[in-house]
Specification:
The protein is mainly α. The protein is built from 7 helices and no strands.
Length: 186
């Protein structure tokens, strides 16, 4: 990921598109962007391999929306994070594929998970502690996103679209597990 980031940043400097003193900022942006692109490509590939592309996308969007505000466990290295993410999407898609959808069980797990998210979020990372204002903002934001996801999940259950509700449910359950793991390891 570093070589493409360096290549693009060097080209921008050579073309006088950015100033030399802004090199580090653009390099970091390209580096993070390439990591994000690799992660999304991996989700799409795993989704295709499982023949569950839309489920992989729905899970990733719902989980990502909540994760950015709620926090949770963070691997110590980019490589560990990538491997952990691949394992998570494989486990999630396997659960979606092989576990029977039972609304009572899943909605009970979602309710329990929602309580954990409501009480624990945000779970900060030791590499990026939150100040008091950030803590309040992320707490409020994570609760709003959680309520939004819960309402959407219930709407899909109500309209008989349990396959989508199942994906949303798993995203909430997975996030709660990441928050608990983050609390344990911090």
């Amino acid at each position: 990921m570093q070589k493409p980031a360096k290549f693009f940043t060097d080209k921008l400097v050579q073309g006088d598109i950015i100033k030399k003193e802004d090199y580090d900022l653009y390099y970091y942006g390209f580096w993070q962007g390439s990591i994000f692109a690799l992660n999304m490509l991996t989700v799409l590939i795993v989704g295709l391999l499982f023949q569950m592309l839309w489920q992989a996308i729905v899970f990733t969007i719902a989980y990502g929306l909540l994760r950015t505000s709620a926090g949770g466990y963070h691997a110590r290295t980019q490589g560990s994070c990538y491997i952990f993410s691949i394992a998570m999407i494989i486990i999630v898609l396997s659960a979606l594929k092989y576990l029977q959808w039972n609304p009572v069980i899943y909605l009970s797990l979602v309710l329990l998970s929602s309580i954990f998210i409501f009480l624990l979020a945000p779970v900060e990372d030791s590499n990026k502690p939150l100040d008091a204002l950030e803590h309040r903002v992320y707490k409020k934001r994570s609760r709003i996103i959680l309520i939004f996801l819960l309402l959407i999940t219930l709407l899909f259950v109500f309209f008989g679209k349990t396959d989508i509700a199942h994906c949303l449910s798993i995203s909430i359950i997975a996030l709660a597990m990441m928050l608990i793991l983050g609390k344990i390891t911090s």
